[in-house]
Design goal:
globular; about 5% strand; about 200 residues; 11 helices; Adenine_glyco; DNA-3-methyladenine glycosylase I; Endonuclease III, domain 1; DNA-3mA_glycosylase; mainly alpha; DNA_glycosylase; 2 strands
Length: about 200
Amino acid sequence: MGTNTESDNKPRCAWASTAPDFPHYHDNEWGFPVDDDQRLFEKLCLETFQSGLSWRTILSKRDNFRAAFESFDFHKVALFGEKEIAELLNNQDIVRNKRKILAVINNAKRAIEMIEQEGSLAAFIWRYEPDQNSLPPPETQTTCAESIALSKELKKRGWQFVGPTTMYAFMQSMGLINDHAEDCFLREEIDKARKGFVRP
């Protein structure tokens, strides 16, 4: 996809100029490594809701999702019952898909189990970090061996809506992969952030 240059003369990944919310998201979040369990869980949930939809739709509703799902505190979401499900299905500010809502609640329970077994979500997820040198050029694929393996293991543990393509998008955004375009002004900064990042 290459890059586009905005009014500040900084070349960015081309997708960053396709929606009003994207430049800020691109410049401040996408690709920076994350080890916070709640942020990782939030992104997994938002990727669930994105399934079949555009990231633009989900990002524009992110604050609404956070309000509806207790800031994605998985301990709280795991306790959601029929009352909360009904409220979510009537919430016009989010994506009202019952299968996805139930998947988020299920995955909150699985997250708690994983932390008990692995110590943290981050410790488990970062085991699947690909070798950056083994990856093809940026923006040329939608899965990799590691996203396929992560998807398979999460499904084995009972997680839902965690297909290989969804997991690859998750890895891109949470910094397990630097998929910024070769000439994007942030690619080098992301590389530095990843080199200085202490793996959990």
